[in-house]
Amino acid sequence: KICDNFAKSHQKEEIRLSIDSSLNEKTLIVKKDQRTNFLTQLSWLLWRNSLGIIREPFTFKIQVFQTIIVSVLFGLIYLRLEYNQKGVMDINGFMFLCICNNGFATMSFVINVFPVELPIFVREYQNATHFAYWMANLNNSADRFFICVAIIVLVVQCSLAFGCFLSAVAPSTNVALALAGPILVPLMIFSGFLLNNESIPKYFIWLRYLSWFSYSNEAILVNQWKGVKNITCAEQDMGFCFTEGEQIINYYNIDEKNYGLNFGLMGALIVFWRVATYAVLLIKANRR
């Protein structure tokens, strides 16, 4: 009834005339779509993400607490490793565990970014691996420590980049999570730690070149063992006995000449997966 009365009233006619007049005067200007630049978009995404952290302080505290606990736990398990035959394998296992932990944990945080439209997740505050480094009695040279940190940072960035690509390709979070395992396991197997580089079948060798676990494992082993001369070889040790770091590097068929190249290739993988992610998102956006 109210609508019917309004339709018959003079107010309706006045509003219609006002709208027609505005259209005739061409006061409505349709502007071309203008997109903000990259820095503006990035600043707003970071601001939005920081608001999410502020609104959920308990989640942030849990993540920090979890990282510290895991680091201390690793340190206690591998506490003060000795430079002898048993310690060599324990140290190598510890370093590979750090690589895998940072790689898998990072991807689990970022893999659901695009399916659920979450902003960029800043993970650097969670990196507390340096606690365990000193507890495990790794190479105590300052330059070796900072290089080890740089390797872990590159592992994190590679995992972030690949996780973003996977989440961009997958139609949902469940699909992305289902794909992550079958893809990551072969990359980890062909890292050179679980399977010697010389034993990798030729038809799978291409997977090694896509594995940042391989590049980081080679870099971190060379960083730890190059120049080490104080490995104890007890009389009861049977068979071959490591006495210096170069022997360990050669045992894994690692070429020290590729040490710097491994850093560059990890950087190239970061750029590659970022560009691939952008291309996927661009294709999906244009389809809509």
UniProtKB/TrEMBL annotation:
Provide a Gene Ontology MF annotation, just one. ABC-type transporter activity
Give Gene Ontology CC terms.
plasma membrane
Please list the residue ranges annotated as the ABC-2 type transporter transmembrane domain. Answer: 40-129, 131-225
What's the chief localization of this chain? membrane
Which organism is this entry from?
A: Brachionus plicatilis
Q: So where does this one cross the membrane?
A: 58-79, 91-114, 144-168, 175-195, 263-283
Q: How does the protein's chain sit in the membrane according to the entry?
A: Multi-pass membrane protein
Q: Which domain of life is it from?
A: Eukaryota
Identification of the protein by name? White-like isoform X1
Protein location: Membrane
Task: Recite the UniProt keywords alphabetically.
Answer: Membrane, Transmembrane, Transmembrane helix, Transport
